[in-house]
Design a protein that fits this description.
The chain is α/β, with parallel strands linked by helices. The chain contains 20 helices and 13 strands. It has two domains: 3-182 and 360-412, 3-Layer(aba) Sandwich (Rossmann fold); 188-357, Glycogen Phosphorylase B (Rossmann fold). It is globular and about 65 Å long. The two termini are 41 Å apart.
Length: 413
Amino acid sequence: MQKKLLCISTVWPEADATAAGTRLLGVLEFFKSDGYQIYIAATSTDEKVRTAIQALDFTTERILLNSSSFDHYVRNLSPEIVLFDRFISEEQFGWRVRELIPNALRILDTEDLHSLRSARENALKNGSDFNLSSWKNLELSKRELASIFRSDLSLMVSKYEYEQLITNFTVPSFLLYLLPLTYEHIPKEVQEVQASFEERSGYVFIGNGFHKPNIDAIKWLYESIWPEILKTLPQATIEIYGAYLPKQILQLHHPKKGFYIKGQIPKVANAMEKARVNLAPLRFGAGIKGKILEGFRHGVPHITTPIGAEGMQYNEFWPGLITQEASAFAQKAIQLYQDKNLWEEKRQLGYTYINDFFSKELHRNTFLETIKILLATLENHRTQNFIGNMLSQQAFQASKFLSLWITEKNKNH
């Protein structure tokens, strides 16, 4: 009988719209390559994206919150593995999974730590410095950590976040697995045919509009960085791409200033392979940045902030330039745009970075072997997780009892 994996999410994953979608589909492809039949269940009503998922040979199911219909579905499916897409999904459906199919391996794909992103956003709004105490004191942090402890394994994309959870939140390392975004190896022949320095022009920014750090980055770019770039490069242009861009961003479209809001693009490669420099001015956020890794893949070096590069710096040879302040960001953007030797150096480092640290070949087999061992030793693994067992007890399951109350209320109406 074919092995089954159920992925539970609030949205259908979109590879061309979000880095999170690309990451989740990549993880599911790992399992598919190991013989698993993949089922994706989501509360989303977006039928267009659902149809695109089905075209990838994944079976989909729309599920409802606070409904016993999910109980029938998951009990009948009875998968060996349940993968929760971000902690909200684990909060909403984890208790049902634990009760109905207790022997299923429960994996949480964190994507990024929402609480870390929120703590940094608060610090930026308040004009204060981010610190560990403010992060720990967030209610969101407690919810997210509880979800991590309740899960058998949590997948982390960021080396920084992985280390923070172990060092400052005392999460046992056996509950975490560092698995970044992964890509196909980039052979020399592919590198050599990508557009050269002379064949490229303009700047590019890519980021979907549902993600608050992207909205802030575009506004900061428009208001504080782009005017400084134009002082030296008055004919410069930048194209802003991303799905779901809100009205406040669409209104920044100003061709006379070389600032073009383009919206969603079917393939990121189409934007990346014609631009000379990739700008990622992120002032808050978490996880690792797909927009930067896509630049590595398509031969376009970047300027970013310490937040943008966080969690991806595996050695001292970073394939871009990093700075914090708007004026310095603009100057480095000008330098990288004009200096061919520097550009070529960073471009080559980007290819090397993907092949050395983010290739599918590097991560797939080790990850799948870890999952096999975990399935074989699950009872012992759970025995070691005392805090997780405690949080799974009834006294700590407020979400369960609220959901049951809503379910009964809906029945009465």
